[in-house]
Structures are given as C-alpha cells and as structure tokens.
Amino acid sequence: MQFLLTIMFFFSSQQRVLTSPVINSCRASTAWSTSKINYFQAIVTGTDARNTTFRQAYDLPYVTTSPAVELISDETQCGNAVTALQALYADGKTHSPVFLIRIGTTRFAIADGSLSVHIFDSNYQYKFSMRALD
Amino acid sequence: MRVVQKPVYCAVAVWLMSCVDQTGPVSNSERQKSMIPPGSIRSSVVVPDSFFAVLPASPGAQVTMHTFSDPVYADVWVTGAITFSSNPAAPGYLGPINTTNGPVYAGGTIDAGGGCGLYVNVYYPATYGTNITASPCNSSSASWRATSLFQGTGYATRGGAILEAGRTCDPMPCHAQSDSQIVWIRPLATQLVLTSTKRFIARGSSVTFFVSANPNLMASGGGRPRRVTAWRWKRADPSYLGADTTHLQWYCSNQAAQQCSVPIYENGTMTVDAIVNGVAQTRSITVVVNVLCPSGDTILDDPATRALLANVWSQSQSSGTERKGFAFDSAGTHIYRIKGQMFENTPCAVFGSPPNPPPGDLLWSTHSHLYLPGDSVPETCRPPNAPPDTKLRAEWGPSGNDWKTVWDQQKPDIIIDKYYLHIIYPYPVDSTRQDSTQDWQYYPKAGWENSYFIWMPPEGACRDLFHNP
To answer: Are residue B354 and residue B465 in the same domain, yes or no?
Structure first.
C-alpha cells in the first residue's frame, strides 16, 4: 500500500512540474520576425521618395539611430505588449507570448502566434493592423 | 495569390515572337548514308544525321568512319553480330574456347588466355586534349552504346584474333569468325538558343546577346560542341540613315565568343549562325528601340506584357477584386490569358491555377494588388483570426503566399498595384505557424532582394499605359 502511494505521489508531483505555467511573454527571434523587421527597417530609414511616402502612409517615424528597428526581449515590455494585445482582441483567449518589435522610439509592432501584426504607439495605444495582400 | 483549380479563362492577346529558322545540313559519304531515326520528334529540335560503316569480322579489320570537322557529342553503337564458330576437326581442337560459339554481338567477352579479341574499337583523333575511343571489349551486348565527344576522321577497328595459346591449331584453325557488324555514330539532337539581356530598349542602349544550346551538351573537360560562324544585324527599315547606326564589326567580330554586346540604334533583328553539335543552325531576336517608358526589364518592356497587365488591372477595377493572368510560350508564340473571376477572390487575395492543360510552357504569371501601403482595406479582407473592429491597413509588395506561388511554379510573377510593378523571381521560402489551428505563414529566405525588381512608371502617360490604357 505504501508503495502504491509513493508511486501515485511521484506521478502527481511530476505532472505538477510539467504543467506549471512558464512566465515568458517574449517570443524569441525567428526568420518570420526578421522578415518583418526588415520590412519596417526599410520604411523608417529609407531616404527615397517611396519610403518617405510609405512612412507618411503608415504614420511611422523617420529613424536615424541604430538599430532603427529591433526585437525586444525585455519581459516587462513584453508583458505590457501582451496586456495591450489582450485588450485589443478582448476575446478571452490568451495572446501570449508575443513578438514585440520596436520601431524607432514611438511605435511598436506586436504579433502573437497568429502572426497578424498590430501597430501601437510607445504608450501601447493601438494605431492599426497590417494586412498582407496575396 | 493562392491556387485553386477552376478552368475558366479568356484569351486576350497573342504576340508572335522572333522568327526561328531551323536548318540542318545534309551530309553525304560514299559508304555512309544518313537516316532519320524513327519516332516522334519535336519540330524545334534539329535531328542530326546518322552515319554508319560496315566492319568485317576479320581480326584487325579497319574501316573509316564519318569525318566531323567540328566537335560533336555523339552516340556510337554497333548493331548486328559476327559469328564465332568452333572447328572440332582441327587437329589441335580441345573444345570450344569458351561458352561463346555462335553470334557475338558488339564486343568481346570472348576470353582466351586472358585476352580480349574481336571487339569493336571506335577511335577519333584528339579533341579537347584526349583521344576519343569507344571499345566495348568487356561488353557483349546487342544494345552496347557509348557517348562521347568526337572530332576529325574516325576509324572503327576490329580487335585481334582470339588467342589460342597452348593449342595446336595450325594450319587448320580451331576457331573461325565470319560475317560483319555495322558501326553507327550519330550526334545528339540539340538546338541553338539565342537570348538577350533586353529586347525593348532606349535608343543607343547596349544589348548583350548570348549563344547557348538546349540541351546544353558539354564534355567532361568542359568543351561545348558549338561554334559561332557569324553575327548579323538587319535593320527593320533598310532606308534608315540615322546619325548613329548599329555596327557589329566593332563589337561582335570575335566569332569564337559565345556572346556579343553592342549598342543598338535602330529597330532590327540580330541573327547568329552557329555550328551546334555538327549542325549549322540560325536563330534571331528582334530588338525594338525607343520603347515608350522603358523600365529596363525585358518582360515589362514588351508591349504584349503591358497589354495584359493593363487588362488585369482594368478587370480588377471592374470587379473590385484582385485578378490574375498568365503568359505561355508555344513554339515561339506567346499566348496570354486572364483567369476568369473566381468566387473566392477578394480585394486582398486572388485564387486560381494556370489552365490545365496549359497552352504552352508557362513564362510568367501576374496578379493585381489593389492597395498601397497604409490604405484601409475593406472588411472582406479581415482574416478570420483578426480582432474585431480594428483598422486594417495594407502591407506593400509581395506576400509570403506570393513568394510561395512563384517558388512552386518556378516562374516569375508580376504584381501590378496602383503605382508600382513588382517582379518576383523564384526564390526559396520558409514557413512557420504557431500551432495546427493557424495558417502557414510563408516568407522568402534571406537574400531574396536580388530576386525582386520594382518599377514605378512615371506619372502621366507612362503610368496610363498600365492603369488607364
């Protein structure tokens, strides 16, 4: 009997360990996030007429500092981004972890696993969402 | 751009491409004759003549093969059989030399004392640094065949007599050979190909013409059996007397070169004559100068391409959805089609695969993008998993699905949007998704920039070519 209880306790504790939540709001860099960073990088650093027009169309800043666009790995900032994304979706589902991409100092691009990109300002106020044309 | 099968199309234009001459010389020899092998042969492929020589069975016999003044990549093979017979009546006969006692095909597995006899050896003089021989000594097969590069006057030689070491077969031979075989040689079929960097140019622009072949035969040493014999330029208007004219002699006098770069000053046709795998062939490309609004891209500067793109854009505006078109090549004739409207099409996505069966080889596809960066897109574009009541703004340029389509079809795609023309060329894609509930997301692997060409026609008449024809 004692043996059986020991076995049950062992598996029950293992399950607790396996299912315990991992607090990680930031997604690590992937080729997909790199492709998005490159997209924004060209727009906010380009000096040609085309990118100037695109910056105005997206209301994005002209950035001269380096890196102009980068993936954020700071948990506090990603936590804020998750909060903003949860409010945007308001669907009761979990939208974490996220890709948090800083664009200059005034914009963030945020995407969860659905890979839809949403643009926020530096106070995490929602601006608009991106839609790729197929 | 996404693919769904539904064969509804309408033809919009047919553009006749450059004229292609196909010629093949007739070669004659007193004891060699030409023949066309049986079977279905594409009309665009020049089939060279075959040549043969009859080689007797007698040991050491030799016959002259066809002379190729230019190197040719050719098949050589032997048909028929000689007869090898034993003579038990010979005083020294100890039984058959080996199990072969009857027909002997292309060569010599007949083994006596470790030797190899009665084989067929085909020899041609040095080409690309090595003697060319074909000797089926270790293959006695009716289907023996070898492929190599040959040049000059060749010979087919019968191997020596079978060694009958240790036997007393003199004066009456213990074994004898009779009959003859036919030794064939036939250059592989290939066609001359002429390409150019541009076909529609601003006057005075330099155009480079390249010679190649399809299939592009190449020997192991790197030698290609083709030789340019002439570059020729013919003005479309013989009376043209501009201040500058096209002069090939300053640019294309090196006939050994497989390419020619020359400034073109008037409409005309560049023609190249070449010996390709032993066969004289000719190809031509027309060049048009002072194309309205040149982009510098050969596809985009073709008036027929522009007509199709303008039509795709016009139909997109009429339907309020993206639309799609295709260009095909059918034996030099270009065929253009616009995909019929698909019910799945939206203002942000287009569906449909090429016609099946296709009317030719796919050259490229095209589809429209209705929005520029930052443009608001309608609710019908909202992805199923997007949050409600959000402002959707269009991304610019090819999507991951567009890149995937191009990679799958291995042909470029032209995207026409309100101001820009984008050409994306096949480039490997990666994909990702969060889990099985999500769609795959595609994107080109790093380094895709060189596979992407963007052109914005200048505002006004040039833009109207595509958007307000």
So the answer is: yes
Out of B187, B212, B242, a domain closes at B187
Tens digit of pLDDT at every position of chain B (469 positions): 655 433 333 333 322 222 222 222 222 222 222 222 222 223 345 566 889 999 998 888 999 999 988 888 888 888 888 887 777 777 666 665 544 556 666 543 333 334 466 778 788 875 543 444 444 444 455 566 777 788 888 888 887 776 665 555 666 667 778 888 888 889 999 999 999 988 888 888 899 999 999 888 876 555 677 889 989 888 887 776 665 677 776 677 666 678 899 999 888 999 999 999 989 999 999 898 888 888 888 889 888 899 999 999 999 999 999 999 999 998 778 899 999 989 899 999 999 888 889 999 999 999 999 999 889 999 899 887 788 888 999 999 999 999 999 999 999 999 999 999 999 999 999 988 766 767 788 989 888 889 999 999 999 999 999 987 7
ipTM above 0.85, yes or no: no
- Judged by a CB distance cut-off of 8 A, whether residue A127 touches chain B is yes
- Interface check for A58 against chain B (CB to CB < 8 A): the answer is yes
CB contact under 8 A, B391 and A88: no
Residue of B367, B376, B391, B455 for testing the chain A interface, max A β-carbons within 10 Å: B391
Among the partner-chain residues B350, B432, B433, the one whose CB lies closest to the CB of A134 is B350
Give yes or no: residues B302 and B277 share one domain. Answer: no
Distances (CA, A) of B469 to B314, B340, B341, B418, B466: 9, 21, 21, 13, 6
Examine residue A15 and state whether it is found in any structural domain, yes or no. Answer: no
Classify residue B151 as exposed, middle or buried by CB count within 10 Å of its CB (0-12, 13-18, 19+): buried
Q: How many domains does chain A have?
A: 1
Q: Which of these three, B291, B313, B334, is where a domain ends?
A: B291
In a domain, B282, yes or no: yes
* B46 within domain boundaries: no
Q: How far is CA B253 from the centre of its chain?
A: 26
Q: B63 lies in which domain range? A: 51-187
In which domain, by residue range, is A91 found?
28-129
Residue B261: give its domain's CATH number: 2.60.40.3780
Chain A interface test: which of B443, B445, B453 (most A C-beta within 10 Å) = B443
B114 and B256 in a single domain? The answer is: no
* Same domain (yes/no): B447, B300: yes
The number of folded domains in chain B is 3
Residue B431 and residue B459 in one domain:
yes
Contact flag B430-A31 (C-beta cutoff 8 Å): yes
What distance in Å separates the CA atoms of residue B89 and residue B82, rounded to the nearest whole number? Answer: 21
Answer yes or no: do A131 and B377 touch at CB < 8 A.
yes
Contacts of A58 in chain B (CB under 8 A): 373-374, 393
What burial letters (b/e) apply to B219-248, b meaning 16+ CB within 10 Å?
Answer: beeebbbbbbeebebebeeeeeeeeeebee
Across the interface, which of A30, A58, A90 has its CB nearest the CB of B374? A58
Cα B72 from Cα B50, distance rounded (Å): 12
Q: What does the alpha-carbon distance between residue A125 and residue A70 come to, in Å, rounded to a whole number?
A: 19
